[in-house]
Every structure is written in C-alpha cells, then in structure tokens.
Amino acid sequence: MTNENHSHIKYLLLIFLMVGCIANRPTERIEFEANDLYPEGIAYDSTAGVYYVSSMRSGTIGKVDRSGNYSPVHEDSTLKSSYGMKLHPDGKTLYVMVGDANYSRYTSPDTRKKMIRLIALDLASGQRTRDIDLSGLVPGEHFGNDLIFDRNGNIYITDSYAHAIYKVDPSGSPSVFVQDSLFATKGFGVNGIVYHPDNFLLVSNSNTGQIYKVNIDPVQVQAVKTDQFFLGADGLLLDDPNQLIIVTNGGNDKIFQIKTEDGWGSAKLNATTLLADRFTYPATATFANGQIWVMNAKTNELLDSNAVPSSKFAIQRAVLKPLPR
Question: What's the Rg (C-alpha) of the chain?
Fold first, then answer.
C-alpha cells in the first residue's frame, strides 16, 4: 500500500468517525440553572419569547429565555408543587395546575394527595387572578396534572389519582366532566390532554399506555385502537388534526408521533425520537416557532433518595424520525 493510499484511508476513516459523532449527538437544548426546581410543565410565550416552567419541588412558576436565563414569575410555598400549564388564548394569562401529589419540599399531611387547585397568573404583573379549588368535586386522593382549553373557553383538567376529568367554565365554575371506568387503573392514571378542533379531547393514561378519545357533547369515552401501548405516557401535543405527539418517560424516555386515518377511532405509530437524543425523564412539550420543545423533568432523581438535587435543567428540541415503510 502506498503512502498516498494509506493517507486516503485515514482521511475516510476520520470523516466516518466525525459523521458518527454528529449522528449520535443529542438534539439542541436550552440549559438553565435553578437549584432543586425540577420543572414538569412548560408553555411557550411567542410574544415575550420565553418558556414558562413549573416546579415539582416548590410550586414556583418561572420563565426561561432563549439564552437559558431563568427567573421566577410567581413564588408561593402554599402552592406546594406546580405541574401542567397552558397559556390562555388571550396571550396574557397563564393557567397552572398546583397541588401536593408527591415531591414537594413543602408537603404536609393536610394537603398531601388532597389538594388540587387551578390558578391563573396575569403575566404582566405575575399576580394570581384566579385560584379555583377542585378538591371537593370527587372524594379520595387527587393529583391535578394537566389542562387544556376548548374553543368556548372551557378548561378541562386531568386528575391522575381520581381517574377523572374536570371542567371549569369561563366564569370559573368547576364541575366533574367525566369519571369513566375506562380510566380506572391502580395508582397513576389519566395525564396529558389536548383539544381537537372537531370538539373532542384526546387523553393519555400513564399506567396503561392507552390513549382515549373523549367526545364533549354528548360526553362519551372510547379507547383509541393503537398498534402499541405507550407506557409512561405523559404530555400530549396535537401537531396536526390527524397527528398526536406523545411524551413518554419512566424507563422509555422518548417522544412518539401517532397518526390516524379515521378520526381517532384508531391510530398507528408514525415517527419517534432516537435513543441518542438522551432525554432525561421528559414530561411535557410545547410548540415554539414551529418546533417541538420538551421539558426534561429529571423526575428519576426525585425517585432516588440518594440523588444529589440538580441545579441544571434543560428544555430540549424533539426531532421526530419517520418510521421506515
């Protein structure tokens, strides 16, 4: 072999290794510091150019800019923990689920697995404009997890422990929307929720991995027939009337996209993120500038009594790879 051929082979090997490293690199992240925050919920404000994030440990609602600078927006230890959040269609108000389900440093016997509240924050001032108690709607334990708005301004809320969906009308009056036997499971149940423009809801169940279609008028629940279950299903996003994004965690830290061809009677897996993206217990997702961005909650550390509390967290872009046909 000549020196020229040897050099050419070394050059090709170097290029191969570089391409391999790039292919195995995780997707883009916005990293930020906030000691012991453990954010679960996320919502993007396109006007301000910031991500609002919650806190399982303190209940604090904060914001992260595109450069990764974190600052609190609303702090109150009586919130215990904050979870799912959505920006109101008016663009001026943030709605957040708060309670004391599991990981709060301010937990107390009178609120643990009992408190469930929906709060609204005026984003200009950071002050609460609404604080709605939902704990008396259904007896038993409560975990107010996620929420969504419909076209009439009603809010639908998942209670993961009561296996129920609540409704809060535009005036702020709460009621039980549905508590169906299909939701029932041991422990953690209904979780992520989205509103479909054809006037129904799609809801995930973390424990069973099932997706449900919930008709609003008349109220009717049916399981969406899928080619697999999505165990650890958490937050949902509707990226197209016929496509649903599912964030999963708890050992399967990936984001999936399923697609329907029959109005969500059934759906098939259409795309997924790669293991090389290395999400760290992803929880919820939001759209930002036409892209999907996911909150890495790092809840696995809260499940480990020996873990040192994190001070660094990351919002990560999800890049979905279509399945080979």
Answer: 21
How far apart CA 89 and CA 69 sit, in angstroms, is 25
Residues 117 and 147 sit within 8 Å (Cβ to Cβ): no
3-state secondary structure of 78: helix
- Would you state the structure tokens that stand for residue 252, as one six-digit string? 């399967």
Tell me what pLDDT residue 47 has: 95
Render 277-290 in DSSP notation, one character per residue. G--SSEEEEEEETT
* Residue the block writes with tokens 């830290």: 253
Cα 250 from Cα 253, distance rounded (Å): 7
Tokens 């604080």, located at residue: 131
- Identify the three-state secondary structure at position 192: strand
Q: What is the pLDDT of residue 9?
A: 43
> C-alpha angle with apex 51: 234 to 33, nearest 5 degrees?
95
How far is 254 from 252, CA to CA, in rounded Å?
6
Backbone CA torsion sign across 93, 166, 192, 33 = positive
pLDDT along the chain (325 residues), means of 10: 47 42 76 97 97 98 98 97 97 98 96 98 96 97 97 97 97 97 92 98 97 97 97 97 97 95 98 95 97 97 89 98 88
**Predicted pLDDT of residue 24:** 66
The residues, any chain, with a CB within 8 Å of residue 10's CB and separated by 6 or more, are none
Q: Do residues 31 and 64 lie in contact, with contact meaning Cβ atoms separated by under 8 Å?
A: no
100 Cβ neighbours under 8 A, 6+ residues apart: 80, 81, 106, 107, 108, 111, 112, 113, 114, 115
Q: Report pLDDT digits (tens) over 156-195.
A: 999 999 999 999 999 999 999 999 999 999 889 999 999 9
* 156 burial type by CB count under 10 A (0-12 exposed, 13-18 middle, 19+ buried): buried
